[in-house]
Amino acid sequence: MRITRTVAGRSRRAAVLATTGLTASALLLTGCSSDSDSSGSTGPDANGKITLTVADFGQFGYKEAGLFAKYHELHPNITVKEDVTSDEKVYYPKLLQQLNSGSGLADVQGIEVGRIKEIVDTKANAFADLSKVINVDDWVSWKEKQATTPDGAVIGAGTDIGPMSLCYNTDLFKKAGLPTDREEVAKKVSGGWEDYLKLGEVYKKKAPAGTYFMDSASAMFNAVVSSNAKQYYDESGKPVYKDSPSVEQGWNLAAEAASKKLTQGLAQFNDPWKAALRKGTVATVACPAWMAGQISVNAGDANKGKWNITTAPGATAANWGGSFLAVPKSGKNVDEATKLVKWLTAPEQQAAVFKAIGSFPSNKGAYDLPDVKDAKLEYFNDAPIGQIYADEAKSIPETVLGPKDGVIKDTISTQINNMEQRGTSPDDAWKAATSAIDKAIG
User: Fold this and answer.
1) DSSP state, 312?
2) How far is CA 158 from CA 49, 153, 396, in A?
3) What's the rounded mean pLDDT across residues 408-437?
4) Through-space distance between the first and last CA atoms of the chain, rounded to whole angstroms
5) How far apart are CA 211 and CA 172, in angstroms?
6) What's the pLDDT score for residue 9?
7) Residue 41 · residue 107 · CB < 8 Å
8) CA 143 – CA 160 distance, rounded (Å)
9) DSSP strands (E only) in 360-406
10) Of 123, 204, 113, 124, nearest to 161 (Cα)?
11) DSSP label at 191?
12) Which pLDDT score, from 0 to 100, does residue 45 have?
């Protein structure tokens, strides 16, 4: 999930961040692109010219990387038009309506990872099978399985992923007597998220006044759950979040962080959270690949060089985010749309998107390309993000997805915020979360 992909928006602001050409505006994943209501597939005109429509949400980065213009250069008879919805929460219901009515669909549709299971289970027949078009082995092992039906049809080609790291404020760490070197910090949390909280307790003892070890316990919860294969559903499609070991672990750690006042209790991406980054009151942030842009833009130039990035706690990495491109069967240009999807998700194009906006590739072939392998972020003390994220991606487990993963996660996160901000007891917060979830998912 890029933030809008996991349900937020994107904005753009400029400030050079990386030696590879990544910028704050490129990496930032909240805000919005220009919205459009026009979509729908039409065939070639009288001159054989084709306009392919791509409907997506947030910022997929194709326009920013110049890929649509490049595709037109390679195929002069084809023009690609992007139809962007800034908020994925608005985009997805519209997509379902279009699928149900059979009209209004674009030639290519974006699908967020939190929705892919529901689409695979209920709407797979509406999309072209890409299994003979792309080589699924080119992607990280678990990515294309998420878009694969029980009979082997692949309805989506993977775009980006969100391998987890840990972003930390070296200025605050130094003032609290903690190490600032990324390798030393990694050692301190090598045992997992439990070690992360222990480090937080050490931080608290000498923390600068008015600062907190982490921004949000709900972000840590998401990272903990996302590092496990079994999360909210079992293999049969049954919701098991109430008995899930990963959910229990994440919830208990979040409750502990709240009770020990290790967290500032900020809902991520809201104005108070942005202000905390700017004022330098937060020492650590659970950091999927796209989060670096959030921090750099909202913390601003005054905090440049005060942040660093290291590997996430524990031996098993987490994935937070990612999307797919799918081709509706009802389109007038299915063959050409399929070719476009294959090209957009190839290593060279995924590397170009990473360079342009920081969305980390899901196609493994991109990891050896210079724009990925050698990528560093100047803002974060030249953190070697290309290598960090590629290494993390290799240890992300194959997860069991469910149709309402996003609903469950968002509801639990709301109640974790209530524990942090309102002092709601863990028992009362859990009861409120499960009651709301049960009503939402039936």
Assistant:
1) P
2) 28, 14, 15
3) 96
4) 24
5) 8
6) 33
7) yes
8) 9
9) 360-361
10) 113
11) T
12) 65
